[in-house]
Amino acid sequence: MGVGIPYVLIICVAAVICLVPLSVYLRFVAALGQRQRATVISGVWDFAGLAAGLSGFLLFGGVLLLALLQSHFRAGMQGGFAALRAGWEQQATTWSVLAGLYILAVVVWFSLVSLARRQSWVIYNVVPGAVEECISQALSQLGIAAQRRGNVWYRDREALCEIEGFDSGCTVTLRWLHPDRTLYEEMDRILRNRASKLDIPAENGASLWLRMASSGLGVFAMTCLGLLTYALFWT
What are the entry keywords (predicted)? Predict the structure, then answer.
């Protein structure tokens, strides 16, 4: 009988796969909070960055879920790589179908969320009140007599734009609600032109915490990578 795969190796592999992309993503967001100006990112690209940061969890989590559904994988955990390879050869078709369904589900999820965020923006390192004033001025520049009710600007009864501020994170999310694509593109142009003039916070505490979290996760992931390398090549 082969030697079982040590669980500590699986934990090390999971840490490297899951935490390295997340650490890079957190470092990127922290860097946006350190800039001397606000940064406007489209909702689609902001979500793409988040998905990239969580890609390790999607990858390893999917593999783990599919593996736990297979009895041969559980047997391989006890019997070693030889038993795991034998189980794969016996159920290759089943594994392939399940993997294909999982990938399809992830792609559909990503597409739907991206579609929902295609007319939105995320503004980093900004004072939310400055964005509210900027929206009102931008709508006036477009010749729209808008009225604000709550977090939404209206033209008569037509919803135009919605704002959602995250004060402690110095971040604002804007959603364009009107179906006119041309109007959205004009708003996008104005927002990006005015981004450098928006007020930024005197101190962005969220950026500091994100940088610390990124460093901690990165150190832990590199430690696991070192242990994994040692176990595979020097033992």
Answer: Membrane, Transmembrane, Transmembrane helix
